[in-house]
Amino acid sequence: MPQNIAxxxxxxxxxxxxxxxxxxxxxxxxNYKRRDGDEWxxxxxxxxxxxxxxxxxxxxxxxIGDLVHVTGRVRESQHGENNDTTYRTELIADTFxxxxxxxxxxx
Length: 107
What we know:
Layout: E1 7-19, E2 24-36, E3 39-51, H1 56-59, E4 67-79, E5 86-100, H2 103-106
């Protein structure tokens, strides 16, 4: 029987790493081209990925500017009560790999 899934894949550059007690948040830039009249322009979209201990060893080697490949699952969450509830879509990393180190580190 088929399984219902919600998953993502991002290949992009790391912009920020925020470590907390049990979780690390990694902002990853993904670039897309869009048409603006007769010209094509590049749009950068930032994705906040939630990383738990299952990818901790890969995160130790990751620095800002590195090109990474991340896959995982999409999760909806809510916080607050009654009329003060906020909803959020979270990207939870299942795999995390550094594809290339930042070019600024190699200069």
